[in-house]
Specification:
Length: 157
């Protein structure tokens, strides 16, 4: 398993969400790639609490010696639902065509006599805000994004 969430989980999670309509139109190959990349980004962006559950496991979860926001122990044999949700949200964020426009400096676009407004200073973040929210309490953010370095703990709000 190279991802924390599988395609059927993501399809079910995003079903009926208006902000996720584009997900259903992606090929399984693109979905798989996005979920794998999202997993790698999360593992690179966070210093997770605890330690890997098994020696030489391919991903950084599951982990042992971790408690959730309610101070309950996290099962060291499974990936927590919130980590899976973060991977799915990150994959959705990365495949969002509107985000890609903003990432390329497109501030406004319209059709009919075609109009395009560019803002080269406009920058997008690497991490989905929804993914960051999902992993609150499981680790510390340690990435450097396009808009500057970020470092700090992700806490319950």
């Amino acid at each position: 398993m190279l991802t924390y969430a599988e395609i059927p989980e993501a399809d079910s999670f995003f079903a009926g969400r208006s902000d996720a309509a584009h997900w259903q139109n992606l090929s399984d190959e693109i979905k798989r790639s996005a979920l794998e990349q999202a997993t790698q980004i999360l593992d690179s962006a966070f210093d997770w609490k605890g330690s890997p559950a098994k020696e030489n496991q391919p991903l950084r979860w599951p982990r042992k010696d971790v408690v959730d926001l309610d101070s309950l122990p996290v099962d060291p044999e499974t990936v927590p639902a919130r980590i899976k949700i973060a991977a799915m949200e990150q994959a959705l964020y990365m495949t969002d065509p509107l985000r890609k426009l903003a990432e390329n400096g497109i501030k406004n676009a319209s059709t009919g006599a075609m109009s395009l407004s560019l803002d080269p200073a406009r920058k997008q973040e690497l991490l989905s805000p929804a993914a960051i929210t999902a992993v609150r309490g499981f680790g510390s953010l340690r990435i450097s994004g396009k808009s500057g370095a970020k470092c700090g703990s992700v806490f319950r709000g």
